[in-house]
Amino acid sequence: MNNKSTSIDYNLNGKYKKLSTFIGVDDVTKNSNRVVTFRFIGDGTELASFENVTGGDNPKPVNIDVGGVLKLQIVAEPGNVFESTWAALAEPKLFQ
Fold first, then answer.
1. CATH number of 6-95: 3.40.1010.20, 2.60.210.10, 2.60.120.1060, 3.40.50.970?
2. Element (H, E) at 40
3. What order do you get walking across the sheet with 71-78 strand by strand?
4. Which stretch of DSSP H or E encloses residue 22?
5. CA distance 30 to 18
6. What is the pLDDT of residues 34-71, one digit of tens each?
7. pLDDT value of residue 75
């Protein structure tokens, strides 16, 4: 990720109840002070936010209620706007 936010959109069509995933900062930034904020947005409403996810931290397990959500957007925003940061989203799974 560069110094701008990045996002990905999923069309869930209201078919799922839960998103389970891990969030973190890629190991290439291990032992650094680089941080990322992750936001999970369902149909324009913020469902969850995780701030100051730091390089070198263990991946954080995340479970989010997405019941009835038509469109899910996952946004990663760098906290250190002058440094490249690699946000990581691992093993995302949707449950009906």
1. 2.60.120.1060
2. strand 35-42
3. 6-11, 71-78, 35-42, 45-54
4. strand 18-25
5. 30
6. 788 999 999 999 999 998 887 778 889 999 999 999 99
7. 94
